[in-house]
Amino acid sequence: MAGTYDIEEKRIIDRIKCIAFREARDAGATFLGRHWVAKKVHQDFHHLAPSDEYFVWVVRRPNYQNDRIWAKTVDDTEEDERYCEMIKNQECIGIFVICTAKRLYRVINDKGESWTGQYFRDIILTEHVFPFLKNEENVIDPDEAIFVHDKSPCMRAYQTQHLLQDNDVKFWGNDIWPGNSPDLNVEEHIGRITKDAVEKKILSEPGHSRYLEETLKMHISHVLKNMETDTDLFETLLCSYPSRLRAVKNSNGRHADY
């Protein structure tokens, strides 16, 4: 569809409508009603496979990057020096998570491995994401699955974009995904659930064992394992994309309360 768009939501929905029209036309349909198109738009978000990477710490610490983006006032970003000093040397574990309408998949980062662009491409994408998305047990339709990741440096790198294209993986590229927008990445919600659950389990640990890396890793694995097939949660998150797009649009660059 030719033309320019002021908002990303309009462009994405128009694209879905075009695809829906072609499918209906090829199937012999003579009329497309509003309800039919609305249903198709709703269904297509089920093909998304949102993902994110984050760190879980023995002592819960804020996500300063997202805090800066979500902050409503300057006071919301105030740093507590005593708190920062207290948690400076604690154990943490990096996690990559991707979910579809059918399943959640995670990669727990081995100690000492940096989250570089090369690691993201060679390990996360090539060894984990590509096989996951091509397996029909994990996605509704492997040919329609769309990989979604925020615009972190490892994702927006041209090497990463070309790698996805070379492996015939559909994805929201640099021309689709807006700037750093936690409100549009439903995996931020998965991260919050994970951190909340792990924090409760860590606090229940006696004495010094709560500060050990193996304790943290055990609880992370357990929490994510329990979420692995929570399809009600995944569907709720994927179906929230239209309202998320509207909320981001209506916020006009401000906090979207998502």
Quick tags:
alpha/beta, 5 strands, 258 residues, disordered N terminus, globular, 2 domains
Describe the structure.
- This protein has 258 residues and is α/β, with parallel strands linked by helices.
- It has 2 domains: 8-45, no CATH class; 49-251, Nucleotidyltransferase, domain 5, CATH 3.30.420.
- It contains 11 helices and 5 strands, in the order ααβααββαβααβαααα.
- The protein has helices spanning 8-26, 34-44, 64-70, 81-86, 117-133, 153-156, 158-166, 187-203, 213-227, 231-239, 241-251; strands spanning 48-57, 92-99, 104-108, 146-148, 170-171.
- It has a 5-stranded mixed β-sheet with strand order 3-2-1-4-5, with helices on both faces.
- α5 runs parallel beside α7 (158-166).
- The longest helix is centred in the N-terminal third of the chain and has 19 residues, at 8-26.
- The two termini are 30 Å apart.
- Mean pLDDT is 76; it is low at 1-5 and 66-72.
